[in-house]
Amino acid sequence: MGKILERIENFDYWMISNVRRWAMPFARFSIFIVYFWSGILKLLSLSPLNPIISELITKTIPGVPLNNLLIVLGVFEIIIALTIINHSLRHLALFFLTLHLIVVILPLFLLPEFTWSGFLIPTLEGRFIIDNILTIALMIVILAHLHPLVYKEKNKLEKIA
To answer: How many CB atoms lie within 10 A of CB 12?
Structure first.
C-alpha cells in the first residue's frame, strides 16, 4: 500500500509542477484565441452577436454608424488579443479587457428582451455574455501573477521585480 501512495504522491507532484509551468501561458493563449477570433468575425461581419451589438449601440448611443463601430470593436478585440500575449503589454491588455467586459455585460441589463427568456433563464446570447465570468476569472489569475508597476524618477514606469 505504501508504494501505491508514494506513486500517487509522485504523480501528483509531477502533475502540479507541470500545470504551474503551463497555466499562465495557456490562460493568456486562451484569451488570445477567443478575442482574436471574435475580432476577426466582427471585421468580416460574420459574428453571430452583431445583431445584439447593433441593438445595444442603437439603444445607448443612437446616431452612431453601426458598421464603423463594429469595425472599431473588432479591431479593439484584436488589440486585446495581441496585447495579452505580449509580456510587456499585459497590464495594458488587462485594462483593455476590463473596459471590454464592462461593455459586454451591459446587454444583460439594457437589453433583457435579447438576453433573458425568463427569470434567470438566459437566451443563447445571454449565455454567451454570462460565460464571460470565465474570462474574468482568467483575468484575475493573470493579474495575480503580474509584477506591480511603479513610477521611478522622471515618470518612468517600471515593474517591481
So the answer is: 10
Answer for the pair 96, 79: CB distance below 8 angstroms, yes or no: yes
Place of cell 509531477: 14
Return the domain boundaries, the chain: 2-159
pTM for the full predicted model: 0.78
> From first to last of its 161 residues, what are the pLDDT tens digits of the chain?
788 888 888 898 899 888 888 988 999 999 999 999 999 999 998 988 888 888 888 877 788 888 888 899 999 999 999 999 998 898 899 999 999 988 888 888 988 988 899 999 999 888 988 988 888 888 888 888 888 776 556 556 565 55
Question: Beta-carbon neighbour count of residue 153 at 10 Å?
Answer: 6
